[in-house]
Amino acid sequence: MLDYDALAVELQKLRENVNGVTDTVIAASDGIPIVADVAKNVDPSHISALAAADLGIARQAAEVIGLGTLSQTVVFGSGGYMAVYAIGRMSLMVTLGDKGLNLGRLLYESRPVIERVGSILAS
Predict the structure, then answer these.
(1) Among 41, 39, 84, 89, which Cα is nearest to 63's?
(2) What does the pLDDT profile of the chain (123 residues) look like in tens digits?
(3) Rounded to an integer, what is the distance from CA 66 to the centroid of its chain?
(4) Cα(37)–Cα(9) distance, integer angstroms
(5) Alpha-carbon 105 to chain mean position
(6) Beta strands in 29-107 (DSSP E)
(7) Under 8 Å CB-to-CB from 123, ≥6 apart: which residues?
(8) Do 10 and 4 form a contact (C-beta atoms < 8 A)?
(9) Residues paired with residue 21 on neighbouring β-strands, in sequence order
(10) How far apart are CA 4 and CA 19, in angstroms?
(11) Best label site of 25, 49, 102, 115, fewest CB within 10 Å?
């Protein structure tokens, strides 16, 4: 049985540890949300679908160009960021951040989170 509470704790800790993180979602690679820590005005299914499309295109590009297995992609916008992380081939995590997001800190903090989330999803 999937431990949704443990997944939610991982998302909450990431938001608390990285200034500027506003929303996080763990989803299946087809874009179906598994668990979300989002503001009331953010639709997890919409974000998950966009993240799955983003990850799919980036994964294809990485393979075609010969960059190896894709681990993450980051969208830079004038108002903030969207980082999408592959969790194996079957799931993903998407993190939204405002303009004040410390992207370096996010990339550093997200690696162990992805490992723990992957372990939780696999159990």
Answers:
(1) 89
(2) 899 999 999 999 999 999 999 999 999 999 999 999 998 899 999 999 999 999 999 999 999 999 998 999 999 999 999 999 999 889 999 999 999 999 999 999 999 999 999 999 998
(3) 23
(4) 9
(5) 14
(6) 33-37, 72-77, 80-87, 91-98
(7) 3
(8) no
(9) 97
(10) 24
(11) 115
**Residue with structure tokens 């639709």?**
43
Structure tokens at 54: 């983003």
- Give the type of residue at 102: N
Residue whose pair of structure tokens reads 């990339």 in the numeric block: 107
Name the pTM for this structure: 0.92
Phi, psi (rounded to 5 degrees) for 22: -110, -35
Distance CA 54, CA 95 (A): 13
